[in-house]
Amino acid sequence: MKTISVTQFQKRRETLIKKINELGGGIIIIPNAKKFYRNNDNEFQYRHDSNFYYLSGFTEPNSCIVLVAGKQNKSFLFCLPKNKNNEMWTGEVYGNEVAGRVFKFDYAYPIEKFDIVISDIINNLSINSIYIEMNKYIGQKNKIFDSINEQIKTTNKIKHICDLSDIVSEMRLIKDNSEIKTMKLAAQISAEAHLDLLKYCKIGMYEYELESRISYNFRKQGAQSISYNSIVASGKNSCTLHYIKNNQKIKNGDLILVDAGCELNSYASDITRTFPANGKFSPSQLAIYNIVLEAQKTAIDSCKTGNSFNDPHQAALKILIQGLLDEKILVGDKDEIIENQKYKEFYPHSTSHWIGLDVHDVGSYYSSSEDNIKNWTKLKPGMLLTIEPGLYIRQSNNIPSHFWNIGIRIEDTILIKTNECEIITKNVPVKAHEIEKIMKDSIII
Asked: What is d(CA 308, CA 367) in angstroms, rounded to the nearest whole number?
């Protein structure tokens, strides 16, 4: 199920070339991700580089994009050639000739010819700058990077190595209509899988049974993979932010925190729900749950064009702290608690992150003013971010025991629009009484 046209990828390359031309021109080089080995002769499932995909739509390994921004703009794709023997083992590939036509590149070559072609490009053009992602270029072993280094050593033409990362990141921060459509489909799949989990869960199951159930539903509905390692945390495990062991038996009275999302056509989804294993929140669980839910609602209300990225976090923080004060979990002055960050024992993370091709997507959280003062990035139509407040109350002599080991996070994905925001993961309920009703009325064997 394709959701983004080849023409759209081509337009992104043209936009990037235009941006580099405005900076004086250059040669843009973006290798695809490497394959990694899990153990001897056994690879991890391959996942392409997000920037590479964003500019090409191409997902095969051992590939590279080269774009020339100059007097004559050009695009090059390097990829695996056709090889019957290799394809018998690992599957059919496009081959450079077909890939070049299908993905609308000006030129396409076998990847083994990269050294020769990049040398010709550098030597035959009056361009002295190379643009590459510096965080991947420095310290990584890669044949493409080795070839670039060799060209720099053997020719005097390259005078500047420039970082491409921020330029592409800012392009990716604002999603186009096809990206938004894809992310809404991914969100719908993930929401339905979370809803199924409320009906499926039973006391005595293991966390990994819920993990396997949600992964099954992702794939059943057409998603290609999970977008991050699923968190299924019951009981005290819910107080561990990135708990992924998922190996404990679910007990009566436990809360279960499930943070899981699918990846569809390379775009991530991200949802967290917390629910009682026995279908009924205890009074203490419900008190903390409603604090977090109110914090999420208030934060979502702050997701408006023109507000800053930090506004939802500050809105959620005030609700969470007041709730902790009301329940006598925190004691003191609210402003002093915020200033000294005393809340971090219970809420150590931010309320939001960008989401897109990566679940923690690229794009700066700050923008610099003319006087070089950092300001929070302003929210604009086409941005997508998560809203995920939480409270994590571990066992402590300073805290009433009926609150011990309660960990709650509620997370949705938000699309910023011109005059409003849209919760694209809203198809799975968040209100406690709705969760309880679903768990009471529907039991899947």
From this structure: 10
